[in-house]
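We modelled each protein-ligand pair independently. The example shown here corresponds to the zinc ion entry; the chain sequence is given first, followed by the ligand as SMILES.
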Amino acid sequence: MAKIRFEHCPVCGSVHTENIFLIEAGKPPVVFIRCAECGAFVAKYVLSKYTSNKPADLLDIPQTQFVGAFDDDAKSSYEEVQKVLNEKGEEFKLIENLIAEANKK
Ligand SMILES: [Zn+2]
């Protein structure tokens, strides 16, 4: 069962965040999440694939190991997230616990 959780600042509780990308040759993109309200370090994501709301044919960039197309799959997965969020709302548990629960053997 899918669960939804917003990233919350551990210092001030805000859900307003900034995504700071670190991109290095041959490495997966890394995103540091910074609180837009108080500037605290919130989280670090290492991406297996980056997809944005920019069709690849418009950007004229090749699909690479770490870049995914903004295709029907990307759009439908986002719509599913919106549906779960509207129906069930946010799950108020630590993201670490939600990830652990979802990956129990
Ligand atoms: Zn904050």
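The two ends are 15 Å apart (CA to CA).
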